[in-house]
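Chapter review: from sequence to fold.
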Amino acid sequence: MTIADIERQIPETVVGAVRGTVIFSALVGLAVGIACLVWPSATINVLGILLGIALVVAGLFRIYQSFAATYLSGGLRFALGLIGLMILWAGIVVLWHPASDGWDNDYRAWFLAVFIGIGWIFQGLGDLFGATTGSRHSSVWWAIFSGVVAIAAGIIMIAWPNLGLSTFVWVSGILLIVISIVSLFNLPKKV
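The token string follows.
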């Protein structure tokens, strides 16, 4: 059986649905990419709000887990609940900074930059650790290079959050536009 035989077995309605989904995703990607380039500060604010919502949901889930995970010891359940409360608190702080009279976009952007920066630093440390374990999944030198670049990007994001986030939004916007256009030219063919 060849790929062509398999393709002939896929109903036209499925191919049409996939084409529709790809077109919709590409158009949304184009719109978001253009929004990133036209309104970078608004994009950063929306990303900060989404981060805050994600933190609140993650914190509530961890708190729920601390009560539902009866197979864990009391100490682990307490630690899980405490972590959940800290994550929930961080989400509330991102969504509504208590020192402001309402929404504080600068604080939200700073928190988002720190979150991304810490993530990149941990990713870089993971890459460096992976390079020392003798794993043959990638070149040792590429793993070291990737680790150093990720750590440097994380430090830059934390040290200069406005520059880091602006660059991040611009590059993301350009990539979204390019990927969306390429997706539109690479639609599944009707059989």
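Two observations follow directly from the output. DSSP finds seven helices and no strands in the chain. Residues 40-68 form the longest helix (29 residues).
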